[in-house]
Amino acid sequence: MGSKLLFSVWENWRRRRVLRKHKIPADLWALTIKQVRAASHLSVADRERLRNVASLFLHDKYIELAQGMELTNAMRVRIACEAAIPILNLDLEHYHAWHTVIVYPAQFVSHEEFRDGAGVVHRHRSVRAGEAWHRGPVVISWEDVIENEDANNVIIHEAAHKLDMLDGAMNGRPPIHRSMNQREWTAAFSEAYASHVADVDAGRRTEIDAYAAKNPAEFFAVTSEAFFEIPDVLKRVWPVVYMQLSLYYRQQTATM
Ligand SMILES: [Zn+2]
């Protein structure tokens, strides 16, 4: 038996065992999923599969609190439910490179350091709703998880960055499936990104968050949020981007 096959036999056994003992209780799951708009496209059967993925996520990852916050079961399940949505049809293995979610009560200050081409070290302070560190945790603001009146979804945003980083580089190009076409992906994303940057630079109002114009990595994360939160808008604005994301996430989110 090949080692990959052996791993999957063992992993499937492990998952069944975890689900027998640690499945999210039905009543709490029912309450949670009602509040998660990004799950509204899912059928009853898909929601049940999502419950399994979310249960495994909760078992495999640590959720830590910053600033003395208290974490309830309802909060843990809400985080797991949203984190499970992008990988519902991709497999939990896509999150293998990270283990921890750190939850802040509200937006937090991030200290960023980078060295420019001339070797000068810059330090930035910025207020964030979330961030995903390379080979590190996902950090989110709880306030931004529950206040999703708009198209934003901080958990899906950071999860998309983690998927993007699977090939080592955060550049808006996650490793796509063999059945997909890299040239079509690149053409769809670079054209939409260029037109978005032009709109934002010209001060035009955009239907997709202007933050996506920051760089191609943010464009992928923001369009991923839109794919789950406002799929009909995304499909109308950039149908080819919607189509590539639909192939990538292996989900149909739009109603049209
Ligand atoms: Zn981002």
Give a brief description.
The chain is of the alpha/beta class and 256 residues long. The chain has 10 helices and 6 strands.
Notes on the structure:
With 256 residues, this protein is α/β, with parallel strands linked by helices. It has a domain at 171-256: Collagenase (Catalytic Domain) (3-Layer(aba) Sandwich), CATH 3.40.390.10. It is built from ten helices and six strands; from the N terminus they run H-H-H-E-H-E-E-E-E-E-H-H-H-H-H-H. The strands form two sheets. It has a four-stranded mixed beta sheet. A two-stranded antiparallel ribbon has the order 3-4. Helix 4 (73-84) links the parallel strand 1 and strand 2. The termini are far apart. The relative contact order is 0.10. The model has no long low-confidence stretch (mean pLDDT 91). It binds zinc ion.
What coarse outline follows from CA principal-axis ratios?
A: globular
Strand tally is 6
Distance between the termini: 45 Å
Ligand inventory? zinc ion
Strands ordered across the widest β-sheet: 1-2-6-5
CATH superfamily of the domain at 171-256: Collagenase (Catalytic Domain)
Instruction: Provide the low-confidence segments as ranges.
Output: none
Helix/strand/pairing class, anyone? alpha/beta
Helicity range: 40-55%
Tell me the major beta sheet.
Answer: 4 strands, mixed
Number of helices: 10
- Taken in chain order, the helices and strands follow as HHHEHEEEEEHHHHHH
Radius of gyration, CA atoms, in whole angstroms:
19 Å
Overall pLDDT:
91
CATH class of the domain at 171-256: Alpha Beta
